[in-house]
Amino acid sequence: MTDLYSVMGNPINHSKSPQIHAQFAEQSQQDMLYTAQLVPLEGFDSAAEKFFRHGGTGLNITVPFKEDAYRFADQHSDRAKRAGAVNTLKKMADGSVFADNTDGVGLVRDLTVNNGVVLTDKRILLLGAGGAVRGVLQPLLEQKPAELIIANRTVAKAEQLAADFADLGNIRGCGFDDVEGSFDVIINGTSASLSGDLPPLSPSVVSDTTVTYDMMYGSGLTVFNQWAHDLGAAKTIDGLGMLVEQAAEAFTLWRGERPQTAEVIVDLRAERRHR
User: Fold this and answer.
1) Is the same domain home to 97 and 109?
2) Active-site positions?
3) For an engineered disulfide with 21, which of 34, 86, 96, 242 has Cβ 3.0 to 4.6 Å away?
4) Domains identified in the chain, total number
5) Burial 62-101, CB ≥16 within 10 A → b, else e
6) What is the pLDDT of residues 197-212, one digit of tens each?
């Protein structure tokens, strides 16, 4: 019998998840169907309950339902508890629903495995203090960076986030104006690139050895990565690989088999270039 999976969000028409999981399923010849569902803003619980009641096996969750999904689940992984938001739900054999957040491990795998970026003992700057940043903090800190600084417009949010994760490593929060020195890795966890804006950072944060990573992606360089490139950054990476890697982590949780991601990333990138 074909296992049913879906991604739920609002909006949802931009989602690449069905295409990614179809490629994963084809690779490993898994009998599964993956669809996308537009869910009304107040309707996540009823949509998820109905999906699982009608035989659904697993769900991915995107904006704006990641916190709703956290509350919906019966059990949570450790990293999901830390994040307070989830992007993956799995129906267990006993009928309960297990929740995980695969965003952070997707980011770390894309940086370390796909792009050969070393995070251990490095100075990392993370921009933003919203859900996207909270979701990646535990996996980043597990890499044991020398220092991780969260910079945000609202300083109190950055400081609170740093306090919440202080037991996992050397982390602190500050405002954009308070960022000093250059960094080995700078990760943009704000959505500024989508509107063509830049976080108000000093150019001195970028050196010729800096790697920048934008969680957003587009057909070419994002505004943030273009800025870093123009300042002479060693490497700029966008979030397309993170998208595929977080999907691979969800697929592994559901199916017990890790898919190959490299070919899927290449295909998606080629498709975006031809737009």
Assistant:
1) no
2) 66
3) 34
4) 2
5) beebbebbbebbeebbebbebbbbbbbbbbeeeeebbbbb
6) 899 999 999 999 999 9
